[in-house]
Design brief:
Elements lengths: L1 E2 L2 E2 H10 L3 H5 L7 E7 L2 E7 L16 H10 L18 H19 L3 H5 L3 H5 L5 H4 L7 H22 L1 H25 L10 H14 L4 E4 L3 E4 H17 L8 H17 L5 H8 L1
Helix pairs in contact: 4-8, 8-9, 8-10, 9-10, 9-12, 10-12, 11-12
């Protein structure tokens, strides 16, 4: 028995093997093969690179068919908060952010050392009109190792997230996460009467890690190169460590509150803008 676009067997095989939201969120793969699917008697056309009767990446998808229908129905009348970008192509924004961070590091450490204090987030400076520091701090790093580990994380996890959700969406998410983390950190330091120097992209990086765990929940990360840990489990461990360190003031000069702020904002971003519940994803895939 056939429909207008192919056999029912093809449709059933597709629905069984592939997460349908993958086509909505990850349109950057839509380049070669053409696959047809139907929602509420409406046919939608998607081309997916490297696919045969389904998505080869479906083992890494986080959203099943039940959530797919809810997600698509919710996006029929998007609000200002969850209106998606029309263009979802891959423009290597994560790579460009890495290059920009390296340039800022070279300038603030060699060409213009005073620029470090103008770009870092210092509560007294912010109170005297340097409001941009709650945003600019995420592009400044205190040492080469600080820069190396943050940018390595952005290269590994950020590029995969960017390919999945689109470059514009990724850039919006990354910048808003860093801004939110900077504002929360400033408020905390201001209320606590502390005058510290906050630098680094760690807040935004932690947000990227959470998003990676949401979209790639079956991925395995080798901690120290030898210990295999599933991405959601690793994020939960990180969150508990940061929470413990913040509450009991452990960790020296590490900005644990900034890391926690990045995780919290990423969670809210998933719930409000993407309409995905990370906790539900973790519960279902673990």
């Amino acid at each position: 028995m056939k429909n207008g676009f192919g056999t029912l067997k093809l449709k059933e095989e597709y629905e069984k093997n592939c997460c349908s939201v993958h086509f909505i969120v990850c349109n950057n793969y839509a380049k070669k093969n053409r696959i047809f699917c139907r929602y509420s008697r409406i046919f939608l056309l998607f081309g997916v690179k490297g696919m045969y009767f389904g998505c080869l990446l479906c083992k890494n998808c986080s959203i099943d068919d039940g959530l797919s229908y809810r997600y698509i129905n919710g996006m029929k009348k998007p609000t200002m908060l969850n209106r998606r970008f029309r263009e979802t192509g891959y423009r290597r924004f994560a790579i460009k952010i890495i290059v920009f961070n390296i340039l800022v590091f070279l300038v603030t450490n060699h060409l213009w050392p005073k620029g470090f204090y103008y770009l870092a987030m210092i509560p007294t400076f912010v109170r005297h009109g340097y409001f941009y520091q709650v945003f600019s701090y995420m592009f400044v790093h205190g040492s080469f190792n600080h820069l190396l580990f943050n940018m390595l994380s952005l290269l590994i996890f950020g590029t995969m997230v960017e390919k999945r959700i689109g470059s514009k969406e990724f850039l919006l998410f990354y910048l808003l996460t860093g801004l939110f983390s900077g504002i929360i950190s400033f408020v905390s330091y201001y209320l606590g009467g502390m005058n510290v120097v906050l630098v680094g992209a760690s807040g935004a990086i932690y947000g990227v890690l959470l998003l990676f765990a949401v979209f790639f929940p079956y991925s395995v990360i080798f901690v120290f190169g030898i210990i295999p840990v599933r991405a959601p489990i690793l994020i939960i461990i990180y969150a508990l460590i940061e929470l413990y360190s913040q509450v009991f003031s452990r960790g020296g000069n590490v900005a644990h509150l900034t890391h926690l702020s990045g995780l919290v904002f990423a969670y809210l971003y998933c719930r409000i803008r993407m309409r995905i519940n990370p906790l539900e994803v973790f519960r279902r895939t673990l």
